[in-house]
């Protein structure tokens, strides 16, 4: 029974992660980086890759609320979660410089 539940959870997470790759509009997700261009880029990446689980307003949904994630985790810890996944979040939803931008942007959310 546990194996079936775990398979269902991981499968659902994978589908949600892949669905997040579908992109979105140019809606404002709150900005908030040190550099406006980088913050805007990070918000756009978040909107395209993460908002389907974490919500466009960062308040959560399938994934946890990230409105104050920077008060709990450092940029490096957030980057590690993005790269390696945690809980139901799949690893590698965002990669490369995009992951770094989003981690920096989220770490400023206090």
Automatic annotation (TrEMBL):
Cytochrome c domain: residues covered: 34-110
GO terms assigned for molecular function: electron transfer activity; heme binding; iron ion binding
Gene3D superfamilies per record: Cytochrome c-like domain
NCBIfam families: cytochro_C551
PTM description: Binds 1 heme c group covalently per subunit.
Record protein name field: Cytochrome c
Alphabetical list of PANTHER family matching this protein: CYTOCHROME C-553-LIKE, MENAQUINOL-CYTOCHROME C REDUCTASE CYTOCHROME B_C SUBUNIT
Top-rank taxon: Bacteria
Binding positions for heme c per the UniProt entry: 50, 53-54, 89
tRNA processing among keywords: no
Keyword hit for Phosphoprotein: no
Gene Ontology cellular component annotations, sorted alphabetically: membrane
Signal peptide: 1-19
């Amino acid at each position: 029974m546990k194996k079936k539940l775990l398979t269902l959870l991981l499968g659902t997470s994978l589908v949600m992660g892949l669905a997040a790759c579908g992109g979105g509009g140019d809606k404002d997700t709150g900005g908030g980086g040190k550099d406006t261009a980088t913050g805007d880029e990070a918000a756009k990446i978040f909107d395209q890759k993460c908002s389907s689980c974490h919500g466009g307003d960062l308040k959560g949904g399938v994934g946890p609320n990230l409105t104050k994630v920077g008060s709990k985790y450092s940029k490096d810890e957030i980057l590690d979660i993005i790269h390696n996944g945690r809980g139901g979040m799949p690893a590698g939803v965002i990669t490369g410089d995009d992951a770094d931008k989003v981690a920096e942007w989220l770490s400023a959310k206090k």
